[in-house]
Amino acid sequence: MNRAFYIGRFQPYHLGHHAVIKKIVKEVDEIVVGIGSAQQSHTVSDPFTAGERVMMVSRSLEELGIIYYVIPIADVDRHAIWVSHVRSLTPPFNIVYSNNPLVIDLFSETNIQTKRSPLFQRGIYSGTEIRRRMLADEAWEDLVPKAVAEVIKEIDGVRRLKDLSRTDVPSSATVF
Ligand code: ATP
Ligand code: MG
What we know:
The protein contains 7 helices and 5 strands. With 176 residues, the protein is an alpha/beta fold. The chain has helices at 15-27, 50-62, 82-89, 101-108, 127-135, 146-154, 157-167; strands at 3-8, 30-35, 67-72, 95-98, 113-116. The chain starts with a strand and ends in a 9-residue tail after the last helix. The relative contact order is 0.20.
C-alpha cells in the first residue's frame, strides 16, 4: 500500500500540476494533496482561499478514479519543524513527490521516500502565467482542468484578481 504526498499553492491548480498527479496515481494507491500557504488569499499572487483551492483540486481529481485527500496546510516560518507540521495535518504517507528542492531536502531527513516530479510545459503551465493572462484578458481557460475554470467562474475569480491588482500594495497588508 503506497500513499503519496504532493504539495503546491495551486493559485490556481493547473494542467502542469494535473499532469504530475496523473503520473503519480499510476505509481501509488492513494494520494494526499497539500494546499500550501493555506492562510493566504485575496492578494495578487495568492488570490484564492484554501477552501476554493480545495474545490479546484477535489473536482479535478474526481475524474482520475483514485482515493485522494485534499488538506489545507498553513505556513510555519521554521523549516526545521515543517515536516512535523505537515504530518500532523495529513493522513500518513510514505512517498513524497516534488520538484521543489527545499521540500525534497526536508523530507530526505526523514524515513519517507522522495521522488522528483517532472515539469510539464512550464512556460505556459504556471500559476504566474495564468494570473497574468487573467489580468490581461487573455485566454487562460485552456491551461487549467475544466473543473478549475468552472470554480473560478463560480467565485468570480477573475474579477477578484482584477480588483486586487488595483488595490493590492505589494509591500503592505494595510486595508482601508
Ligand atoms: P506560481 O507561479 O504561482 O508559483 P506554480 O505554477 O509554480 O505557481 P505552485 O503551486 O507554486 O504552482 O507549484 C506547486 C508545485 O508544482 C511546485 O513544486 C511547482 O514547481 C510545480 N509545478 C508548477 N508548474 C508545473 C508544471 N508545469 N509541471 C509540473 N510541475 C509544476
Ligand atoms: Mg511556484
